[in-house]
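Fold this complex.
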Amino acid sequence: MERAIIHTDLKKQEIQPDKLLEKYLKLLKDDIFELLPIESLLESTCPVSGESDIRNTFNQIGLKYKISKTYQNIYLSPRPDAVLLKRFYVKSKARKFWLTKIWEATMKVRMKKIITPQLNWTKSFINQYCENEILQIAEYLPNHWGYYLGAKTIFPSSNYQLIDILFNQELSREKIKLLKVSDQPRENVLDAALLFEAIDRAQNPQTLLKNVSNSLKSGGLCFITCLLASGFEFKTLGHHSGIAIPPERMNLLSFEGINELIKSVGCFEILEFSTPGVLDIPNVLSQLPRVKNLDFINYILNERHDKELIDSFHEFLQLNRLGTFGRIVLKRK
Amino acid sequence: MGQIRHHIIEKNNNYDLKIICDSKPHKINDAQKFRVVRDVKDVIESDVQAVFICTPNHMIPKLTVQCLNKGKHVFCEKPPGRTLNDIKKMQIAENMNPTTKLMFGFNHRYHPGVARSKSIVDSGRFGKVITLQGMYGKSGGKDFQKSWRNKFEISGGGILLDQGIHMLDLFNYFLGKFTSAKAFLANQHWGFDVEDNAVVIMKNDQHRLAVLHSSSTFWKHMFSLNIYLEHGYLKLQGLLSKTGSYGRETLVIGKRQFEDQSEAVGNPSEETIYFDKDLSWELEIGHFTNYIMNDLPVSESNSTDAYNAMEIVQRCYQDSDYPIYKTNF
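Structure:
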């Protein structure tokens, strides 16, 4: 299974400007209170193993996360069911703010530094493994239309469909408003399935991956990006890390958790598993003052004043799959 | 090579290994599963449908032609003989036996880093290829001087023909249509009658350039292929192998960035992919099987590819000031 390491000049501020993010989180807090009342939520077990034993819990914006005992997956429990979750995405003022303000303000950078490179990544595999000229591609659980727009350029002659959308189509540009979206493609029809942080958002990741495996042709590819609980950021900062934002992050699986999830579905070969993120170190640096007993990390990242050391530490994290941003390629057997 | 092919064929359910022909039959393992013979006639006259020819170079053309003329499909190791005439003879036999499939062992095309590079180049994401730069070499070794690979009568050439031809095939794969080639050859270290170092400069009909250094004096096994395109570059280093001696197979992907796109001109953002599984042998045989079973034309590593690679080698040898190549071409 291959792995990638990436050096890019992407900066957190470019995609998450402080002031906009602050407002987004404020709106999100109100939304959660209003749209996800605690009595409407359901207790959950580990989304991979089903076990109820936990290592720890922590609260985030009024909701509770649990950390499973075996795989150390982080999962929201209690959590909304699929219907309530969809309703949240459509009604949420925070999501509206994200789609109309944050997306608009950061679209150019996101397109250039995140969306286009990720679609090019998928294309390099698709070109290598798929022979069809007109490809059937589906993006699952998108919470914005950025990849759809990017795909128009990267896959101009393909049939690109959106499955189970988690955004309000009325907020989108005209073309997206007119786009027909479906709940599930038929069996055995897809050349590629794109799960950009879809496992994080899924009410049930196992069901999602099973549906994907049913819809893919034999030899079809599944591309996953996700945030990992086993990454440097959460392992260092714990609940001070900003990666657990409910309800968007329903599941933050660990490296072991994702591997087990793939194994449990059973019909995939892993072609790539990488953690090529670039925000681990800046995110940890920004929260370091709030966390105790991180002298050594503080020494490496702050006090040594050595850029080469930081670069090499960053490379070490990626090379050893210890980063927070995961990217995975699966081939349907 | 025969052992590798043997192992891969045994793993492929589409093949039933019937005969192995070897000059040292006692060295063949699991000999009870198939016939082991010393005489090639026993293979040529047998009813097998496909033959893998893994012999020294001087035997390749005759055996290939004989097998094709008996209606057998042939998978033939590289190089395709010793001279351009050898491959021409094989092509004639191939054309006279249109039901047969003839494929050559340019397995580097199926290495994961090469396959990914090809997929990126073909996607057009970085535009057209401008130049190629390759280095491919090995360390020689204690018994290197005794190897048939360095004896002109048997091999027909030195390191360029033996190993460099893989890189030339990749140059054709990524760019091709080379209309001129200049070469400097040397044999100062090992002192063979064939070259131990070759530096080749090539130009194609679009004025795109390629440079290769093929060597048996690198002392460390080494493979490096840089592909420079209009909007980026691909740098392939190392090759996955059984012993790992060519180093970890990695592909660096860089996108061209000028002042308007980056703070550091000439030092763009890069992605490095580390590969850890070499399925090149299996994939190569999978292609050969597919051509046979579905009666498809051999579209990769076919006799035209072999001819094109061999043509460059021959041009280099003719261009060199080596007496042995002057007198024999």
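The first helix of chain A runs from residue 12 to 15.
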